[in-house]
Each structure stands twice: as C-alpha cells, then as structure tokens.
C-alpha cells in the first residue's frame, strides 16, 4: 500500500477513463503517485478514482474535460501550471481515423488534430515550464509506431503522431538539463476502444500484431525506468531503432547548403 509519506506527487493522466490511460492510472497508483484523472466520461473516471484510492491508499481526483474545448483545455493547463504537487504528465488522450485521408470526413480530421496535436502541445507547454522551474518532473507522450510510417494508412492520423514524437524529442533536449525526464511511447496495434471509435475492427488484424494494453503500459514504464527517451514496446531489435536514428542524424549536415546537390545540376 502507498501512503502520503511515500507519494511521488500527482500524476496527471489525460484520456484516463479507459484503455491505455486507465492502465497507466493503475500502474502509477501502484507506484505511489496520487492521480488527477482527465477525460470526458465523469462516471467512468469517478469509478476508477474510487477503485484506485481504495486499493492503493492514494488520492485520486477527477477533472472532467473535453480537450477539444478551449475552456476545458485551459482549466487543465491552469492546473498544470499552478499545482506544485504535479510531478508527472501523461499526454495520452487521442482519437484515430481509418481509411484514406482523401476519403475522410474533414471536419472529423480537424477535431482529431485538436485532440491529438493542439491539446498535447498546450499541456506539454504548461507542464514543461512548471517542471523546468522546479527542476523535476516527468513528461510522457503517447505517440504511435505510425509516426514512423509515411506511406500507409491514414496520413492525417500518422501526421498527428509524428508531431507528438517530434515535439517530445525536442522537449527532451530542452528539459533534460533541468532534471526533467521526457519519454515518447510508440504503441503498435493495441487492444483498446480506439478502433471501435474509429469505425475499425481488430478482427481484421492478425492476432500476433495485437498487444494487450497492460503489456504495453508495463513495457512503456520499464522503458522509462531504464532511461529510454523513445520506447517502442514491441521492438525486439533496439539496434534497428538506433540505426534508424543514426541514419537520420547523418542527413543533417547536408540538409541546408548553399549549392544544390550534383544530381540537380
């Protein structure tokens, strides 16, 4: 059991009512964090908060918010900026969309961008500055393996997750010198409600490609514990990620020069 004497501060979890967010809430409560659970579904949040408070002796608070609503988002930002007990932000809330981008409902795409891009950007800004000033804190952002995939699936969704990955890696450079831990988590296909909400079905995906949500979260937290800034839970050959990152870095010296490459002359 945790107690107030062993609390690690408050973890703010967006998208906490189900799936990845709910399992993170369970695991972080086990680790001794108090919780501030953020999502739209008040009933689910309150049930989870009560359960975790009883099981682990931690404080668990509910903040009902639609992060696509500017006023709701501002309330969460304000809490992150002003509550000095907050020591961790999990930027998890998000939605997906199936099919080809050009066949999508563009209004839905715009709402997806508000939730997947605008909200985590503003929350990371608020939390990042608060953690920087206190020289402590942890910022975790849930991206996707599709952040590395440019040519397949719905390009708008992939792009939102590429944004999250890029922003998180930039924040790592900014915040690490100030004692703040930063991690991007890149799930593959995970058994959550996000597929139903996107109008897709896991029935069409081979079973060996689908990870259970508790395995995903446990792997992500293990990655955090060993100091990974990017965690890809299903990636066995970490050398492949390192080679990818090194190849990307090798491009940098030639990306902006005074003369065109010889093949263009």
From TrEMBL:
Record keywords, A-Z: Oxidoreductase
Q: Which domain of life is it from?
A: Bacteria
Query: What Pfam families does this protein map onto?
Result: adh_short
Asked if the Swiss-Prot or TrEMBL record annotates the protein with the keyword Oxidoreductase, the reply is yes
Q: Which CDD domains match?
A: SDR_c
Q: Which GO terms describe its molecular function?
A: oxidoreductase activity
Q: Name one GO cellular component term.
A: membrane
* UniProt keyword annotation of Isomerase present: no
* PANTHER family xref list: DEHYDROGENASE/REDUCTASE SDR FAMILY MEMBER 7B, SHORT-CHAIN DEHYDROGENASE-RELATED
State the similarity comment.
Belongs to the short-chain dehydrogenases/reductases (SDR) family.
- Name the record gives this protein: AraC family transcriptional regulator
Which organism does this record belong to?
Answer: Erwinia typographi
């Amino acid at each position: 059991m945790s107690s107030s004497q062993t609390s690690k501060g408050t973890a703010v979890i967006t998208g906490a009512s189900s799936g990845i967010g709910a399992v993170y809430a369970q695991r972080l409560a086990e680790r001794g964090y108090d919780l501030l659970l953020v999502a739209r579904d008040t009933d689910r949040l309150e049930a989870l908060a009560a359960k975790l408070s009883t099981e682990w002796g931690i404080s668990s608070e509910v903040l009902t918010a639609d992060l696509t609503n500017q006023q709701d988002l501002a309330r969460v930002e304000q809490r992150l900026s002003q509550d000095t007990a907050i020591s961790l932000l999990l930027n998890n809330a998000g939605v997906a969309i199936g099919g080809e981008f050009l066949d999508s409902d563009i209004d839905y795409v715009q709402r997806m961008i508000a939730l997947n891009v605008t909200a985590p950007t503003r929350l990371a800004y608020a939390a990042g500055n608060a953690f920087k000033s206190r020289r402590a804190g942890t910022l975790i952002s849930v991206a996707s393996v599709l952040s590395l995939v440019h040519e397949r699936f719905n390009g708008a969704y992939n792009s939102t997750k590429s944004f999250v990955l890029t922003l998180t890696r930039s924040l790592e450079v900014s915040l690490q010198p100030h004692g703040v831990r930063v991690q991007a988590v890149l799930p593959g296909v995970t058994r959550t409600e996000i597929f139903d909400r996107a109008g897709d079905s896991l029935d069409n995906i081979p079973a060996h490609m689908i990870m259970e949500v508790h395995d995903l979260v446990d792997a992500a937290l293990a990655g955090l514990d060993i100091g990974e800034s990017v965690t890809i839970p299903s990636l066995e050959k970490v050398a492949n990620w390192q080679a990818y990152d090194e190849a990307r870095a090798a491009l940098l010296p030639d990306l902006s020069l005074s003369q065109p490459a010889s093949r263009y002359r």
